[in-house]
Specification:
The protein is α/β, with parallel strands linked by helices. It contains 10 helices and 11 strands. Helix 5 (129-142) packs antiparallel against helix 6 (146-167) and helix 6 (146-167) runs parallel beside helix 10 (268-279). The relative contact order is 0.15. This is Hemin ABC transporter substrate-binding protein.
């Protein structure tokens, strides 16, 4: 699965992730004027927040989405730019009641300008699983979908509990989860992917990376000697060279089957299920021998 959306995700992860020494991510908060009691017009700046609105059953409120959104439900909606370069003018022309934003250094000024010019903005950090659950609840509250948001959060936690239990009977594999190969970008400590790896009983060999979405040296990756490399990269450039390195060539390489593991949103539970299946593939049934030809 190699798409523009995963490239968008890589930019989002690298630019939105806090520095190693940064304090914990802030809770969801508003900028600009207070949104109306009934929100009818919503703009989202990242696909994971579009997914959240859709999962809450509020897709009819969407009037604009990012240029990386691929969900069929929003195929006909105006595009308002990307994570780091949202178009303030385009957003304001859509007259939103609420703009949903994953904050980061790359989009700070245009988002602040939207708020200054009269657009209500809800900032939603999405680094960790806890952030994701808080974002679901905050968006649910803003859109009058509190019960739906609680149900989504409960579903994620129920899946996590089930997978943790299933992982208890498994040998913990050493795993490297890769978002890009040139440079090598990996899931480090504090990322939602790191949490999901632990839920699945895995050992994240990049737990020493120093930040949630880190540029990791090839030397460190080789020394880590992962047993499984999970490929979540958007393009294969540099993959063959990386895969051939000692310490990595012996690993089992697997591709993520969907965006569920990549987007910090309501599909995290499904992403965790997919991750578990990648790490502990079910043994294949012994093929039935073909009948011998008649003599």
């Amino acid at each position: 699965m190699k798409t523009l959306l995963s490239f968008s995700l890589l930019l989002t992860l690298c630019l939105a992730a806090p520095a190693p020494a940064a304090p914990p991510a802030e809770a969801p908060r508003f900028l600009g004027p207070k949104p109306p009691a009934t929100v009818k017009r919503v703009v989202t700046l990242v696909p994971s927040l579009t997914e959240t609105v859709l999962a809450l059953g509020a897709g009819s409120t969407l009037v604009g989405v990012s240029r990386f959104d691929e969900a069929k439900e929003v195929a006909g909606l105006p595009r308002v730019g990307g994570f780091v370069n949202p178009s303030v003018e385009t957003v304001l022309k859509l007259k939103p009641d609420l703009v949903l934003v994953q904050p980061g250094p790359g989009n700070q000024r245009p988002v602040e300008l939207m708020a200054e010019l009269g657009a209500p903005v809800l900032l939603l950090p999405l680094h960790s699983v806890a952030d994701t659950k808080a974002a679901l609840k905050a968006v649910g509250a803003a859109l009058g979908k509190k019960k739906e948001a609680e149900a989504l959060v409960e579903r994620i936690e129920s899946t996590r509990a089930r997978i943790r239990e299933a992982a208890k009977g498994q040998k913990s594999p050493r795993v490297l989860l890769v978002y890009g190969f040139e440079p090598l970008v990996v899931a480090g400590p504090g990322s939602f992917a790191d949490e999901l790896l632990r839920d699945a009983g895995a050992i994240n060999v990049a737990a020493d990376a120093g930040s949630a979405y880190a540029v990791y040296s090839l030397e460190r990756a080789v020394r880590a000697r992962p047993e499984v490399v999970v490929d979540a990269a958007d393009v294969d450039t540099g993959k063959d060279k990386t895969r051939a390195l000692p310490g990595l060539s012996q690993a089992r390489w697997v591709d993520v089957p969907s965006l569920a593991l990549l987007q910090p949103g309501p599909s995290l539970g499904r992403g965790l299920e997919e991750l578990f299946e990648l790490l502990y593939p079910a043994p294949r049934s012994t093929p039935v021998p073909a009948p011998e030809p008649a003599r």
